[in-house]
Specification:
Elements (H helix, E strand, L loop, with lengths): L2 E2 L18 E2 L3 H8 L6 H12 L3 E5 L5 E5 L11 E4 L12 H16 L2 H16 L9 H15 L3
Parallel strand pairs: 1-2, 2-3
Antiparallel strand pairs: 3-4, 4-5
Helix pairs in contact: 1-2, 3-4, 4-5
Length: 159
């Protein structure tokens, strides 16, 4: 099970160096850097990166706008279910440092154990939100993620 992230912000990394991986998690800037494209809108940008990376799952991090995830579908199809969007779960952003790492860690474990990109994206996004709501890069415990999930579950059920 191979997972990768790149760090264009702190060094010259290119996510396309990790072709064929099970999961890659670049942000929009890293995707644009890898493709050398500043003009595409986000969905086609993510789709092109997904195709060139030949990965099984791509989670394109969009900061406060959430994420787009692209997943494997049968070859030669343009299935609309090949991607989905997920809003950010962050309610009060204090410091985004470490949020990408939290997303990567939780998404990778969830994808490995469940095989489901939706589950991986939700849990990764919840972990990133927890990280954003604290000062500094602090560990995100499973309890933190479960608490955040339960809060949104209560809100969805209007309790």
């Amino acid at each position: 099970f191979k997972v990768a992230d790149s760090q264009v912000a702190s060094r010259w990394g290119n996510i396309l160096e990790f072709r064929g991986f099970d999961l890659i998690t670049p942000n929009e800037r890293e995707a644009r850097f890898a493709l050398g494209d500043q003009d595409l809108i986000v969905r086609p940008l993510g789709l092109e990166l997904y195709r060139q990376a030949a990965c099984k799952t791509l989670i394109l991090k969009l900061g406060e706008r959430g994420l787009l995830a692209f997943q494997s579908v049968p070859r030669n199809t343009e299935d609309v279910r090949a991607f989905f969007a997920l809003d950010s779960f962050a309610e009060r952003i204090i410091d985004a440092v470490g949020s990408g790492d939290a997303l990567l860690a939780y998404a990778a474990l969830a994808l490995y154990s469940s095989g489901k990109p939706v589950v991986a994206s939700v849990l990764g996004s919840l972990a990133a939100a927890v990280e954003c709501e604290h000062e500094g890069n602090v560990p995100v415990s499973p309890k933190n993620v479960v608490d955040k999930l339960e809060r949104f579950e209560r809100l969805a059920n209007f309790r």
